[in-house]
Amino acid sequence: MKKLVTLFIFALILVGGVYADKVAVISKVQGDVLIQKAEDFDYSTPVTMGMILDNNDQIKVNDGFAVMLLLDDKSQVKLRENTEVAVTMVEDIGGTGYHVRLEYGQALTKYAKGAEFGFQLHTPTSVASIKGTEFWTITDPETGDQVIVLEGLVDVMNNLTGMISTGGAGQTVNSSSDGYIDTGDTDESTIPADPESDTDGTGDATEEESEEEVAETAAGDSTETADADAGMPTAPPSTVDTTTPAEEPEEEAEEEGDGGGLAMDAGFGAVTIDGQLYNQIALRPDISFGKLGVGLDIVIYMDQDGNIRKDEWNEAKDVIDKIMYVRWGEPGDPLYVRVGTLENVVLGYGLFMNGYSNMMEYPSVRKTGHHIGLKFGNFGIENVVANYKEFSFSGESTGLGIMGLRGTFSLGKLTFGSTLIMDNNQYLGLKDDDGDYIPNLVDDFPDEAEYSKDSDGDGRPDNSPDEWDIDGDGKTDNYTPDHSRDWDDEITRKPDPFDISENPSTVGGLSVDIAYPILNMDKLKLILFAEAGQYFGTADSMYYDDNGVVRQKLVEYGMGATAPGLRAQIFNFLTASVEFRITPTGNFVYGLFDRNYDLERVGFVDYAGMGLTPRTRYEKLYDNSSMMGVFGSVGADVLGLINLQAGYQHMTSDESEVKGIQGVIGIAPNLIPKVEAANAYILRMNVDDPFDIVSEGTLLGYKVTIGLGGGATLTWDFRQSYIDLDGNGEIDTDAGSGEVVAQTSIETGFSF
Predict the structure, then answer these.
(1) Which among 399, 401, 398 is positioned nearest to 385, based on CA atoms?
(2) Considering the entire predicted model, what is its pTM?
(3) pLDDT tens across 35-49, in order?
């Protein structure tokens, strides 16, 4: 198995190498100039003329100079001695463009007029965005930057303060590492000499022609090499005149490929699984061809002794877990399909399923499900399945685990809908490592499917032939196979543990809804809607603690509604919603299937004289009287710098209150220098005190990604929730109690 895993990972690395993007060519070089390829960790290879640069390759000029020619538009970047630089082709909301990262030194940029792609030059202090220009950049990580503009315009943003200053021809923009930035007239004596001026060049025209020939030859060579490596026929010779940039054929090739490509991320770090710390090695290829996208997550976990964790590789069905997603289209398309991980799934207007995710226990538990949307004429269908592993089940429990089905019909501007949500067996949320349908918490042998009960606690299973004294009373009761010489007439055994397959518990809900767009303008959209639904289930009674006395009560399934509800979108950066909520019969839970559902799907309560008894999330939350109240939320994109989302629920009756809060905050990439992504969140709904954070019903966490340069990142991902395992109504925060569920992942990532 280890050899198979190694070969598979090696093959993925080779595929990623074949499809690496070609971004530039070295048109001239002189002196001591070295390259560090994206997959290497040091500068060990001399740079030669005609050498192709891939995404995230880095160049270091110790002595002499080098000239990089960007392949797509023939722009130049000339590097003087004592300079280090990396070049990358990126795609973001602004389109495709070059990012040149100048770590230190001096660089002269000659950006081609009318170039198709954008261009940014990044330093540790600033970002320079240009518009058909020629300029020098002199950077020192300790003091800051000088951007000397020779032609055109350059916008320079200081990374620390976000302030922007524009320089024109004959001006210099000074951007300091302490946040100061200004523009003034250029002192001619500060302009560095062109590194090629000391060489034996034969004139600008010849120089440009030779550089163009190098670029075209190198581009052709790289294309042929990539095609040959991929097993594809080589491209026919170009018929374009050699003095004309070959841009049109490249555009046609892009259109024929329909935006296809392969990206490869690698990750190395530490992760906690089931309370144990593992080192991880991960490869995450991401393949896209038009509307088709495929993402894989190939991970190996190793303990401190170098042993590979086998749980991810010991069964054929584990192959499914390596599929992060397979996607066709986007939500809202006539056909949308996503198979794999699911995030923020909402059916209808969220009466039952509102923000569900099957990733909340990742990587300890990996789930593969699907979300499918189909539109034809005035009709629409959506289907959600949370986990394929729950499809088939022995015993009396069969079904599809958590699933949802929704249909819609449009009549003019009115849209009618109906939604069905079901969890066919809530007890499937109990962890069962050995697959014997006895949950770990009540299984005396959680890693051995043949055994589950040890009445006397001596470490030998009751049904083992080596257990001669089942109840530990000193009298042999299993002395011979035919029991002819058993000495114990009365054998006291533990009760049989709870069996998931023999005790299925279903909960579900059925709703109808209607919506009408009151306003549908460019700057303002307003939708009026209503949704009403009824819960149903198979459980008819449950146990509860009445001041130390264990009693039974009926499980009731109530009706609830949102009527009316309003959702608004204002100026494309502000969203808001408000809902009036009412539960005329009581016993209703809004958004039962939310982001927290998998974490709280079912747990155990330790009742005196009964031992551990399962209790589902619905049973924990449903018991309330008829209520009325509101739910409101707001989301805002603040100047493209900060994204905020917040929500609050308040339901009341004569006897009790049900409240809730939810919130997310995220910042734009590089708003804080080096921080490529950062967000934090909290969810605590359907509780009596939303600010009693250390209790069941809470989910909180954060994720921060730091850019390390050269395509490398460091990601810290933390998530925490709470579960009352012993059912005493309090969370034991002591280490080892198991009631504080925290997951931390620290990973160094690389993009190819």
Answers:
(1) 401
(2) 0.61
(3) 888 777 778 889 988
